[in-house]
Amino acid sequence: MVVWQRFGNDIRIGTVVEQEKGSDGWLKYRIEWHKDELYEESTGWKQRLRNQTWQKIWYRSDEVLPLNVDHINSKILAHQSKYGSNYD
Question: From CA 62, how far away is CA 41, in angstroms rounded?
Answer without folding.
Answer: 24
